[in-house]
Amino acid sequence: MKELVTTEQAARVIVLFAIALPIAGLIIGAVAGAARKRLASSALLGLICGLVGPVIWVMWQVYNGIMGRYGLDSVKGLLINLGLFLVVGLAAGLAVGGVWRRLRGAGGAPAAGRGKS
Fold first, then answer.
1. From residue 58, how far is each of 6, 87, 94, 99, 113 by CA, in Å?
2. 117 part of a folded domain
3. What is the pLDDT of residue 103?
4. Domains of the chain: total
5. What mean pLDDT is predicted for residues 81-110?
């Protein structure tokens, strides 16, 4: 039986995302920033969001390396990947939360509980 999606096809799509997402993020951020009169900060935020593409590519490479070393049926490989993805996800969540709080405090949307009085 032939695979529906091969590893090579998946790798090509991930490389395409790794290249296209930062460019798209920069453009979308710049367009949104121009409408809000905050071009530079919005373009930078869009670029940062677009960097998800290269991060996905790196994680794909690491995943394939671990699975190549330990095999797809290895509990050790699964646990290593689980731990790695949890750490990367937690770090990304903390980073996004920190940036979000900083942007909200710098003239963005009002923070929770800080309404007009």
1. 19, 14, 19, 22, 39
2. no
3. 72
4. 1
5. 82
